[in-house]
Amino acid sequence: MLQRLVTCSGFMRTSIGAGLPLAVRKQRDGRKLVPTPGGMALRSAAADTTLVKALARAFRWRRMIEAGPYGTIDELAAAESINSSYVSRLLRLTMLAPDIVQAILDGRQPKAMTLQALLEPFPIEWDRQRTNNPMPIIANLVLAPGARAGSPP
Q1: Using alpha carbons only, what angle is made at residue 119 by residues 75 and 105, rounded to the nearest 5 degrees?
Q2: Are 119 and 90 in contact (CB under 8 A)?
Q3: Could you report the per-residue pLDDT of 59-101, keeping only the tens digit for each?
Q4: In this structure, is residue 144 part of a structural domain?
Q5: Which stretch of DSSP H or E encloses residue 51?
Q6: Nearest to 96 by CA among 58, 42, 134
Q7: How many Å apart are CA 93 and CA 105, to the nearest integer?
Q8: Could you tell me if residue 69 is inside a domain?
Q9: Which residue range(s) make up the domain with 111?
Q10: For tag attachment on the chain, is the N or C end more exposed, with fewer CB atoms within 10 Å?
Q11: pLDDT tens digit string along 11-64?
Q12: Does 111 reside within a domain?
């Protein structure tokens, strides 16, 4: 590309420039090495993106109903173009115990804990979710270090 520039003193200056298309991309595989006190590195568990997105959507919908423009689940479902039954089942995820939600966000949930399994009815009492739950995937949840089943986080 040839450009001619006129300087403030009136002289003409010509410059030639070349453009090279260049794309720089940093690749990440979503894994993280966590150093331990012993010097060994452990890979952190990858969170299940389907469960994390479902939790985020459920808590967002709850906020929209509690403080937002929608007064009922049916109004919200119509606005989101989603079946109201699905919205109701997903909203139940907001009743999970905080330590269970945190375990899902941290990727510490059992492999059997899928969105489909969590959409099944579960007890709303947090202690029963952790212990006497008919759904053993919650009862067998991998707890954070130092946490006890049946106790608040």
Answers
A1: 100
A2: yes
A3: 999 999 999 889 999 999 999 999 999 999 999 999 999 988 9
A4: no
A5: helix 49-67
A6: 58
A7: 13
A8: yes
A9: 48-139
A10: N
A11: 566 556 555 565 556 555 555 555 656 544 444 467 889 999 999 999 999 999
A12: yes
Q: How many domains are contained in the chain?
A: 1
Q: Letter for the amino acid at 6?
A: V
Q: Which residue has the tokens 């420039």?
A: 17
Question: What tokens does 42 get?
Answer: 């452990």
Domain presence at residue 89: yes
Given a contact cutoff of 8 angstroms between Cβ atoms, the answer to whether 118 and 51 are in contact is: yes
Per the model's pLDDT, the better-predicted residue between 150 and 70 turns out to be: 70
Query: Closest Cα partner for 82 from 103, 52, 60, 107?
Result: 60
Token readout for 114 is: 């899928």
Taking the C-alpha atoms of residue 144 and residue 148, their distance in angstroms, rounded to an integer, is: 8
